Description:
three-stranded mixed sheet; alpha+beta; 174 residues; 16% strand
Amino acid sequence: FWQSYLGGTKQGTIILRTASGVSQQCTEKVVIDEVTLSQINKYCQNHDITLSTYVQAAWGNSLMELNGTEDVTFGYTMSGRSEELVDMENMVGNFINTIPIRIRRLGEQGNDQVQQLQEDNIQIQKYGYLSLGEIQQAARLRHMAFDHFITFQNMPLVENKLGIKAIGGHNKSI
Length: 174
């Protein structure tokens, strides 16, 4: 899978660096207003993609513009808890992995691009348990797959009685 998925990449996509060649480490948190989120969710529903896939496509297209290329890779932090993992809900541990995501410009239709990315993400779920070193070896890469990564967390902001907004969530046990 990984050889086919990453085959033909010439180098890992880099974030633009300073004049001295040093990249800046940064963390950016994006909060989307309700109207925009509603529009994005409608787009995702109409095209049968996840919100995470939408965010990956947006980041990939931004990288293509910044780097003047038609093919980018970046790291993406995903849950390493495969559906096939027996008794997964009773395991304790750090089950995350950062894997390469590849996005290519597919003609003029952005819808084709997000559909392809969604299909790729479904396949990646089957092979995302490998370490980055194993992925790069399986893909026969002679270069670094990426120099940065994104993490997508889909959690609502909840306002408490004092008007303080915080990340909220819930757990459901059956």
